[in-house]
Amino acid sequence: MNNFGVLGWPLEKTYSPFIHKSLLNMTQLEGNYELLKIENIDEKNIHNLNKRLDGYNITIPHKENILGLNINSIVDEHAQSIGAINTVKSSGESIEYYNTDYEGFLFFLNKIDYDWKDKNILVLGSGGSSKAIRYALSSNSSSTHIASRNVTEDTISYKEAEDIGSEINFLINTTPIGMSHLNNLSLDLDVNKFTNLDLFLNIGYGNTGNFFKPLLDSVNSYNGIGMLICQAILSFNIWTNLNLQVLDIYDELYKLLVNKND
User: Fold this and answer.
1) pTM for the full predicted model
2) N or C of the chain: less Cβ packing under 10 Å?
3) How many domains in the chain?
């Protein structure tokens, strides 16, 4: 029996259980995938999860926090470079940390046939998902900006992002703005300034609310379901030691998910 799950808070809406249960069915493996709703993580509750589960995903707000805990673990080189974890594998006394977000992001861009090379790219938000995407984007010559409320040497303010809005071709939202429980919140940013976009990706997949509506109505746009499917297959491979080809089974999983929500 394979015991998997997803750790996060508040986890009001997630498709991860459905995707992974579908993967278990497709591979004829027995197993479960559960919601792990924990607001604050510490060594004790993570240790308990590691003992009980064979693997689990990590989502908001714990992708970065888990690295600060005193847990004896092996950190994959990509996860180490990113500074955020979205996949944990537990086997006996060995705890392994991975990040499949960055590769899932690249697989998704491949799937939609978007040529992102030499584009001007703006990422909204500087959390764990943003770090994974920035790591993925660092592999070519695209000009990438990260906008955040907390300005550092690696980020710009939302006002500065607005000032370069007309130069941006690819806009990526990694903030929780637009999720169902934050439906009425907004960023200090005028999205109407982005007049030369050819793609908008909102990695959330709940209600996008009113803030991004001008983009959704006028720009080629995607939510985060595609990237979620890609990174989920990669996580599943890590847990099961399988080698499922992401783009070979993407359409089947996507169809199952769409039919579920009809």
Assistant:
1) 0.93
2) C
3) 2
